[in-house]
Write a structure and sequence with these properties.
The protein is α+β, with helices and mostly antiparallel strands. The chain is built from 8 helices and 8 strands, in the order αββαααβββββααβαα. The strands form 2 sheets. Strands 3, 4, 5, 6, 7 and 8 form a 6-stranded antiparallel sheet that branches. It has a two-stranded antiparallel ribbon with strand order 1-2. The protein starts with a helix and ends with a helix.
Length: 236
Amino acid sequence: MSVSDSVSGPAADAAAVSFPTGWCATDLGSLRPCAYTYEVYPLESLPPLEAAHLGDGFDWLGGAGGPRSAHAEHLATMERELAEAGLSLPEGFAAFYGSEHLSRAFDEVSVTACWSHLSGPLPSPAEEGARLVRFLRDQQDCVIWYLYLRPSGEAFVVFSHLELESAGWWAEGEPTEEVRAAVASSLMRCADTFEEFAYRFVVENELWMRANSAGAESPLAPRLQEYADHYACAAS
């Protein structure tokens, strides 16, 4: 069932909403071609991830310790706003963007010039009580990623080609059902947790740089080799 089929108004049953899924990314050299800047790949085609890579401490990136980031005050304000709505940020998301060095990870590694840009909580066009938090956007807004927060406590990552904060679909009174459904149908679920998204995004961009670097002959880092092996096996 698609989002556009399931949305029936502000009181839509959260349990009835099922977002389409996919992973929006660029190529991985010969391992995974891409006809354009981005394509949407089936989630089942992606390499499985080990549980050790999905902890909210981000040990594989050096951990969440060290100086606080410039996002700290914004995160505190966001937490207060979400608390008023009965929601909260996942610990991993707060730790990532609260850490100076972690909060720069996406920006530093992105080969398509994506950059971190946190919004405040944005009303969901699909479910009453849910909120979205924009955290990453392509330089030309071809794709924008959001943390999706449900009243049940579930938190996952979606992407859209729409910039929901400035789109104004929710800012001027109650939107029409047509507008609500159109905006909701732009959302695709790409990762069950923020930690999963972070790992895939960083590893894929690192792998792209190796795959597209002339003269890169040194062995791949283990996490890159594991990811590449999946595609090599699938092609054999």
